[in-house]
């Protein structure tokens, strides 16, 4: 196992423990993070997002597999099962991660998942029938960023 594979393993193991500080320790200070909801987070925003998510995900259970990396990039697959705090609905999110590395740390982290599928679980009927619409997805993103900004300001 090379050192970048070990960094991904440490990141996912910290996520399993809901240890945001352990996750952030795997990130380069100039990290960029993006997924279907949180797009183009930079530096401290990425760490704050994980702190917020693990704090809210009191019952979150994470599994991971397919971790691989070379000297420049890596990938993995993970699943998170949790209760979405806003609605109280159960979610099983299936996520593919891609990473780039610099100075032995993750400098770029891109997670991919089906936002419509997530919306159907997290929001219920409204998400199932309307979650594929760009205005609904944009509202999900805007609400999430407002929560992150509020979290960061406290």
């Amino acid at each position: 196992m090379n050192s970048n594979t070990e960094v991904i393993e440490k990141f996912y193991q910290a996520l399993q423990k809901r240890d945001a500080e352990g996750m952030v320790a795997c990130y380069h200070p100039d990290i960029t993070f993006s997924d279907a909801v949180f797009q183009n987070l930079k530096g401290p925003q990425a760490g704050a997002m994980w702190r917020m998510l693990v704090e809210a995900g009191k019952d979150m259970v994470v599994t991971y597999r397919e971790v691989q990396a070379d000297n420049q990039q890596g990938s993995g697959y993970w699943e998170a099962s949790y209760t979405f705090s806003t609605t109280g609905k159960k979610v099983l999110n299936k996520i593919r991660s891609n990473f780039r590395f610099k100075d032995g740390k993750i400098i770029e982290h891109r997670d991919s998942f089906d936002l419509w599928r997530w919306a159907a679980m997290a929001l219920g009927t409204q998400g199932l029938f309307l979650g594929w619409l760009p205005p609904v997805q944009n509202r999900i993103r805007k609400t999430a960023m407002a929560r992150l900004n509020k979290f960061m300001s406290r």
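The longest strand covers residues 89-102. The chain has six helices and six strands.
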